[in-house]
Amino acid sequence: MSYILPPKIEKEKSDPKTLFYKITAISVGVFLLLFLFQKSANYISNKNNTNNNGNVLGVKSESENVSKIDELKNKLVLPPIIIPGTPKPIINAKNYILVDQKSAEIIVAKDEYISVPVASITKLMTAVLTMENGKLDDIATVSKNAVYTNGSTISLAIDEKISIDDLLNALLINSANDSAIVLAEHISGSEEKFVELMNSKAKDLRMNNTNFLDPAGLNDEGKSSAHDIATLLSYALRFDKIKSIIKTSEKDITSVSGLNHHLVNSNRLVKEEMFFSGIIGGKTGFTPTAGHNLVSAAERDGHILIAVIINTFSNTNTASAEECKALLEWGYNNLKYFY
C-alpha cells in the first residue's frame, strides 16, 4: 500500500484586504448555515411536535397571539428516552401507541397509522365540538331518533328536556349513544351536518387517517387510527370541563324534566376496581367488529403520557383496561425525562 502526500502549498502572504473578504465570506456562510438549520428545525417541529397546551402533531394554537419566545420554548422540549436495555412492552392488542404529550414523541407503537373502527372513542370528538360550539347551560329536547338509538344509553325519554352539561356527562361517563345524538342534533340540526363538522375538525387536527360517520361511533365503517386518537385526546385535554368529567367514576344527573339518570364510568382505570395512579381519564369503545378499545391519559411528576389500545386480543370486558394500564406503567417505569 502506498501513501500519497498532498502537494506542498506555498504559504500566502497576509493581506488586510484579502483577510477582510475571507472573514466576510466565512461570516455569511455561517449565517446561511444557521438560517437553513433553523428552517429545517421549524419544519420538523411543526410536523411532529406539541406545545405546552398539549396540541400534538402540529395542531394550531388556541391563541393567535402566542409570542415567538413561547413558540421557541415549545419547540425546544426534549422528548424522553427509553432507558437503555429496556425491552419493549408486550401489549396484547392489534394497534397501540404511547405518546409523551408535552414533546409529542411517540415512545412505542404498533400499526399506529392504520385506519380501523374505534367505536365509542368517537365520542371524544363529539365532546370537543360540544365545548367549541355549544353552551353548557343550554337546554336540549330529546328526539325520537335519539331515544331509538342502539347500544349503550341512559334511557332518555322522547321530548325530555336536559341540559348540554348533563348530556356531556352522560356522553363521556356512561358512553351514552342517545346523548351523542341529542348533542349532534342540538348543535348542528342533524346528525349528518354534525358529522361534517366532525370531519372538518379532524382535518384541522391533522387526523389524516380518520373519517367519522356518526357522533356515537356505532357505524364500524367510520374509522380512525391509534395515532389520530392520541392526537384527539391530547387536544380534548385542553378543556378543563372534559378533564373533570372523564375522571369521574360515578354521578347522578337530573334532567330539567325531572328524570334521574345514574352514570357509571366505562373506563375502569378511574374506578377502584382497576384504578391507575395518576390517571386523568379517557374514553372506552366497543363493538363486536371494533373489539375492545381504550384511550387514556395519566400524569406523574408533571409528565403526561397518552396510551391508546385498539382491538385487544382478549375479548374480556377488562382487556382494554389491562393493556392500557400495562402500557402506561411501562412508560413511567422505563422513561428518562429531561424536563
TrEMBL record:
The keyword Transmembrane helix applies. Pfam families: Peptidase_S11. The keyword Isomerase does not apply. The chain crosses the membrane at residues 20-37. GO terms for molecular function: serine-type D-Ala-D-Ala carboxypeptidase activity. Residues 88-313 form the Peptidase S11 D-alanyl-D-alanine carboxypeptidase A N-terminal domain. Keywords: Carboxypeptidase, Cell shape, Cell wall biogenesis/degradation, Hydrolase, Membrane, Peptidoglycan synthesis, Protease, Signal, Transmembrane, Transmembrane helix. One of its GO terms (biological process) is proteolysis. The active site is at S120 (acyl-ester intermediate), K123 (proton acceptor), S175. Belongs to the peptidase S11 family. This is D-alanyl-D-alanine carboxypeptidase. It comes from Berkelbacteria bacterium GW2011_GWA2_35_9.
